[in-house]
Each structure stands twice: as C-alpha cells, then as structure tokens.
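> call design_seq(struct)
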C-alpha cells in the first residue's frame, strides 16, 4: 500500500521529487496557479493530476473526484516572496495564502502535513504571523512541530534555510532528518563538487557536452537518469559587466573592484562572485543576474546558466523546465531542493509507520 499525497503550491516539483522517488507514496494531485510552471511540473511528474488553477477554486468535489476519499499526506508551501528578507515583506494577498492551505487541510483531513517556507516567515509581523499559522493548524486538530533546516546539511551545494512545519493527527511522531554534512560530519558539497564536470563557458555561449565522467557522488546523482546535458547556456552580458566580472577575485564583491569599475548602486551581495571551494549562497530567481544577486561563476567570470542553477538546487540533469529563460530560472529559484525533499519524504514515511 502506498500513501496518497497532494502537493499544494507545487511549483516545478522540487518537494514532490522526494515523494515521487519514495515507493511508499503516490502523489495523486498537484496544484499550481502559473501556467508555464504547471506545464513544467507535468513534464516531470506525468502520472500526477495537475490542477492549473487558483487554489481558491479547489472545491471538496473537485478534490474528491481526483483523489477519492482518503488522502494521507498534504505537502507544500505558499509563495514565499511576501516573507522573504530580500523582498518588501508586506502582508499582501500572497501572504494570506496559508489560509487556503488550512482550508484544504480542513477539507481533506490528512494524517500528516508538511508546510515549508523561507526562514523570513519567522520574523513577519514581529514574529506574530508564525504563531497565527501554528494556532490555525492546532485548531484543525494537528499536533505541530517546527524547525529551520538548512539544505546544505543534506548534500545540497547551497546554503538555503527553510522553515519546515509538520503536523500529525494525534501524537506527532515526525522526526526531522539528521544533518549528514557539516562540522564533524561529511564536508559540505561545494560549487566545485557540483559543477566541475560541466564545460567552460564564455558570456552568451552554449555547450551541452560533459567534459568528464562524474567525479563524485553528487555528480553521479544528478547524472544518474540521463547522458544528455541541456539548458547549459550562459547569459550574454555587455562589455562593462564582463570587465567587472573578470576583475573580481574568487568570492569577491564590488568593494574589491578598482574605483573606476565599481558600480554605484546595488547591495553588498550584488556584482559578486561565488566561491569555488564553498557551497553557493541561497539561489533565487535572479541567479543569472549579477546586478541582483551573488551569482557570478568563480572561474569563468560570467553569470550562471540555467542548468548550473538547477545543479546548485540539486535538480537532476534529467529534470525539465518550461517557458522563457527567466521563467525557467524562476521555477528553479523558488523550488525546494530535491535532495532535501528525499530526506523529508523518508521522515514522513517513518512517522506514518509509527
């Protein structure tokens, strides 16, 4: 028997990935409002019924028709832009979408749910919003646990903190996955570990050929389902930006530039190189835009390709994205890293077994 799962606010399917790979689960429905993103999800999860619609339009009848009577697990997290410390942090319409998550919980009444979001959620409304969310979950009859996990501790080549809230009917048996990487454990997966089998690229160049066999366990994972590289094209930038990128040292920022090259605007993490021997900073939808994030390739002095961004999120090279380049980068930047989702799915299964 497999446990039935619904993925809300599914995005491109990063969180679904771990539940799809685990034979103890069957994702029966996913919901995503953005058309291109829903298409990308369906390309990677063809057996799942994708409902491309506003979550407010999910009725009890629709859910029952697709999923049947008993759904065991609900996963997902509302759009995080309202809570992100990089955004305006305002209680707009998106910030209230957790109420729709709760509405679906009340309709479906799963045994367990997993709700994820950015760590900035904890400080919204002076720290009051997270208590409102947890109280709503408790009102629905769930015993609630909450913890901040960093994807880098689970083999993802990126520092990425996420709030993971898990609720169970009755006593909460969920145990958060133990970190496997970090001080006293296995060394973090670095940019070099993640990207060293990919070809050198100049600005605007495309090359979809591997330059070596997999060089480590991470590369073996991302290449395990395909022998073809795709989406490996560097953004084309102007000569002034290229001059800036070439002048930066490994891990350097605009403050390390000569005065005549130093941009007059931008935050401290913009116009900045990543470090080859360390994990990446948090990947956002702007990972190909040096004026918006720390995303300059440390050895090639250019912005990242779509596939490199996907690698830093731990998406397998077989994973497909859909739409314009900016849409594909949005799909990647907003996702839960698949390697983290694998660990979370295992922990959900262990809780259900108990």
């Amino acid at each position: 028997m497999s446990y039935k799962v619904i993925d809300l606010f599914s995005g491109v399917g990063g969180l679904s990935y771990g539940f799809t790979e685990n034979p103890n689960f069957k994702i029966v429905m996913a919901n995503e409002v953005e058309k291109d993103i829903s298409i990308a999800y369906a390309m990677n999860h063809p057996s799942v019924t994708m409902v491309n619609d506003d979550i407010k339009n999910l009725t009890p009848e629709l859910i029952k028709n697709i999923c049947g009577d008993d759904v065991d697990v609900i996963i997902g997290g509302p759009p995080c832009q309202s809570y992100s410390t990089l955004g305006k942090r305002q209680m707009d319409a998106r910030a209230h979408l957790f109420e729709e998550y709760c509405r679906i919980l009340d309709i479906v009444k799963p045994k367990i749910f997993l709700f994820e979001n950015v760590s900035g959620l904890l400080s919204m409304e002076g720290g009051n919003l997270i208590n409102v969310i947890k109280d709503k979950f408790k009102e629905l009859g769930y015993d609630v646990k909450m913890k901040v996990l960093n994807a880098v501790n689970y083999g993802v080549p990126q520092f990425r903190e996420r709030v993971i809230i898990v609720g169970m009917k009755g006593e909460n048996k969920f145990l958060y996955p133990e970190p496997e990487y970090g001080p006293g454990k296995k060394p973090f997966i670095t940019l070099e570990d993640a990207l060293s089998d990919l070809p050198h690229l100049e600005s605007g160049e495309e090359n979809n050929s591997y330059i070596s066999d997999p060089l480590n366990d991470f590369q073996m994972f991302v290449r395990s389902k395909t022998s073809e590289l795709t989406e490996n094209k560097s953004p084309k930038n102007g000569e002034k930006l290229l001059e800036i990128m070439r002048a930066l040292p490994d891990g350097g920022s605009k403050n390390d530039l000569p005065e005549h090259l130093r941009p007059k605007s931008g935050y401290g993490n913009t116009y900045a190189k990543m470090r080859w021997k360390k994990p990446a900073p948090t990947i956002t939808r702007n990972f190909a835009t040096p004026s918006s994030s720390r995303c300059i390739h440390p050895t090639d002095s250019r912005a990242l390709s779509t596939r490199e961004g996907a690698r830093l999120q731990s998406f397998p090279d077989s994973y497909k994205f859909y739409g314009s380049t900016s849409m594909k980068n949005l799909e990647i930047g907003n996702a839960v890293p698949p390697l983290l989702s694998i660990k979370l799915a295992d922990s959900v299964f262990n809780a259900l077994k108990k």
